[in-house]
Amino acid sequence: MRADDVILFAQVAELGSFKLAADRLGLANSVVSKRIQRLEQDLEVQLLHRTTRKLSLTEAGVSLLPTAKQMAQLRQDVTESVTQLSSVIKGTLRVSVPTISGDLLLAEAIAEFASLHDELRIDVKLSNRFVDLIDEGFDLAIRTGYLEDSSLIARHIIDSQWLVCAAPSYIAKFGKPSSPESLEYHNCLHYTYQSTGEGDWEFFIPGTEDKRIVKVNGNFSTNNAAALRKAAIAGHGIVYVPKCLVYHDLQAGILMDIFPHQVAKKLGIYAIYPFTRHPSPKLRALIAHIRDRYLAMAHYF
After folding, report:
1. Going by DSSP bridges, is the β-strand pair 140-144/266-274 parallel, antiparallel, or unpaired?
2. What CATH class has 160-266?
3. Is the pLDDT of residue 85 over 50?
4. Residue 163 and residue 186: Cα distance in Å, rounded?
5. What is the CATH number of domain 90-154+268-300?
6. Model's pTM, two decimal places?
7. pLDDT of res. 281
8. How far is residue 189's CA from residue 176's CA, in Å, rounded to a whole number?
9. How many other CB atoms are there within 10 angstroms of residue 278's CB atom?
10. How large is the average pLDDT for residues 222-248?
């Protein structure tokens, strides 16, 4: 069994095509096909189901894939360990970031990194849509939540704590909720762009680390976090948002944290990239820069 064949299998499995893998590696399609056949013969198992329309993994292929990914990563790490010291950070990086992160710290941090390297250009797209990094040509995405796509590599940056808050004018008019359950009697404004249901707010069960969902209702919902923040500041209702979105408002007393230490929702912020596009020195440096900037402002999160 040849290690290069195992790594090639990982690339074919990610791209779902012999031709795409061949184009990526500068090989003939027939060469890629023969090397995968050779690997299957060496292992005495079938790794891929081949049809005229697509490839899919067999049970053996699914079992081999994690190891194949690790081998691909190890080979890249070995190569970079002897070349990265002399590498010049230059070229282009395409980055996708969510709107909250982009509007707050992230866009500034990326622009700062670009200004430090005269030969580097960074193209940042702000969108809450989960882009397809490979098909759309992105080198990196910053995402908040849970990683479900096994063809991607995630590097944890920081955790983002959520909270429940409202303007003093709302509290003065309608009273402060005495418990999460009492939110049923309040106007709760919904952020529709979140992993759980927009009306499902997560809290700790008192005295435990167990969690429960409280169902809430309200007369306003939006997928735009900035619009939700403005509605809350204007006193129109209670919101459930990431702390970083309203940090300065809390410090200024414009918004009030209603249930300190009771909100259970905390999501990881990750740097995501395809596993076959192992991070170049410039991408590694950008991820490290973003992480350093976030950690320096950890109190925001």
Report:
1. antiparallel
2. alpha beta
3. no
4. 16
5. 3.40.190.10
6. 0.67
7. 82
8. 15
9. 18
10. 93
